[in-house]
Write a structure and sequence with these properties.
With 105 residues, this protein is mainly α. Helix content is 60%, strand content 6%. It has 5 helices and 2 strands. It has a two-stranded antiparallel ribbon. Helix 3 crosses helix 4 and helix 3 packs across helix 5.
Length: 105
């Protein structure tokens, strides 16, 4: 029996640009869900329900739920900013150029 390393197995399974793109997309999806989960944790630490936060933002509870499920790309930046500010935080936008990160606001 021949043993193969991870690189060899991965190359066999993910041998196309389309598959690599799918893997990258899934990784980004997981990161978005992690960020969203953290937002929900912060809200709970502040003792707020989704409904209370929604009312203070003048949006629906379903919209808050959507944000907390990782659907940030479908949310308006202004809504995200209001969400974070309602919990006492500040949104910073960072442009990532690989070797350089630029904080825009």
């Amino acid at each position: 029996m021949t043993h193969r390393n991870w690189k060899e197995v991965r190359a066999e399974r993910i041998a196309t640009p389309e598959a690599e793109a799918r893997v990258s997309a899934l990784k980004e999806e997981v990161r978005a869900e992690q960020r969203a989960y953290r937002l929900a944790e912060v809200r709970k630490q502040h003792g707020m329900t989704q409904l209370q936060l929604a009312e203070s933002l003048h949006i629906t509870q379903a919209a808050v739920s959507s944000i907390e499920r990782g659907e940030l790309s479908r949310s308006e930046l202004s809504t995200i900013r209001k969400y974070v500010e309602a919990l006492g935080g500040k949104v910073e936008i960072v442009a990532n150029f690989g070797d350089e990160r630029l904080v825009l606001g």
